[in-house]
Amino acid sequence: MNDYQLFHGDCLTVMAGMEAGSVSAVVTDPPYGIDYQSARRIDKSKWKPKIQNDKTPFLGWAGMAYQLCTPMGCILVFYRWDVQTAFVDELEQNKWVVKSQIIWDKVSHGMGDLNGEFAPQHENILFGRKTEFTFPGDRPKTVFRCNRVPPEQLLHPNQKPVSLLSALIESVSNPGDTILDPFMGSGTTGVAALLTGRHFIGIELDESHFAIAQARIARAAQMADGQFVDKQGKSSDTDNLPLFTQ
Ligand SMILES: C[S@@+](CC[C@H](N)C(=O)[O-])C[C@H]1O[C@@H](n2cnc3c(N)ncnc32)[C@H](O)[C@@H]1O
Fold first, then answer.
1. Which of 35, 53, 56 should be mutated for ligand 1, with most atoms under 8 A from CB?
2. How confident is the model at residue 223 (pLDDT cuts 50, 70, 90)?
3. Mean pLDDT throughout 195-205?
4. Which 3 state secondary structure label does DSSP give 68?
């Protein structure tokens, strides 16, 4: 039985009320500070065009994340190359030992400045550890290749693929561990955590994103409990369920 806890609110407030040492890994995708505006046509009933707190890199939470992790804990933080210094400083100034930069190769490139920059095909993830962390299985490599969520399937402007989050979570934690995402957006980390047999704690400030996360994670919990097993006894293909998307 996978359990999970979701909080609608500011992660700085919610994390301050959580028990120290209650989390195995923090896996998160904070506002990068790039004032991101989705280029595709936006259905305003589904999400706000810009995410909250994205004017500058959102900092001030890594110290609490450190306190919440066990001594065997670690952290994975999505970011973009041009705000790397801010996020490395945020982790290192809060005792995390930053050990790796991971590349998410998105297989296909995005738009960006068509004439003035290389076509962007990757995002970055920082890996930091506490003193007693060890990898649960084979040593993972620093490049993860995984298709982005197709634009027409996006439920959140910055939504990450479930398969990427599943691979990351499996590389740093064991089944039964608890994963925390203080900036869960549409809840992708939670979906991946439950589908890989982990427990999950998620926090999201925006009401509409929170509602989407609740729905997706509830469905993942049902699947993880075997309620979506097909007639041949195999699990259903999660990618084909509307609230999962890749
Ligand atoms: C980059 S998005 C996460 C997207 C997510 N990985 C997904 O796949 O849907 C960052 C999220 O952090 C939320 N956020 C911003 N400030 C926050 C805060 N102080 N506490 C909790 N969530 C916050 C934003 O509303 C946004 O949904």
1. 53
2. confident
3. 97
4. helix
Does ligand 1 have an atom closer than 6 angstroms to the CB of 29? yes
Q: How far apart are CA 207 and CA 191, in angstroms?
A: 18
CB–CB of 51/157 below 8 Å? yes
Query: Which residues have C-beta within 8 Å of that of residue 29, sequence separation ≥ 6?
Result: 77, 78, 158, 160, 181, 183, 185, 188, 189
pTM of structure: 0.90
| pLDDT, position 246 | 54
Give the pLDDT confidence score for residue 224 in this predicted structure.
Answer: 85
Question: Relative to the CA of 203, which ligand 1 atom is closest?
Answer: 21
Predicted pLDDT of residue 239:
47
Q: Is the pLDDT of residue 229 over 90?
A: no
Write a three-state SS string for 203-245. EECCHHHHHHHHHHHHHHHHHHCCCCECCCCCECCHHHCCCCC
Please calculate the CA angle 166-98-192 and round it to the nearest 5 degrees.
10
Position 233 scores a pLDDT of 47
Which residue shows structure tokens 């009933």?
Answer: 45
CB of 54 closer than 6 angstroms to any ligand 1 atom: no
- Probe target for ligand 1 pocket from 15, 205, 207, 214, with the most ligand atoms within 8 Å of CB: 205
Give the integer Cα–Cα distance in Å for 21 and 10: 20
Which tokens in the block code for residue 145?
């290749």
What separation in Å is there between the alpha carbon of 96 and the centre of ligand 1?
21
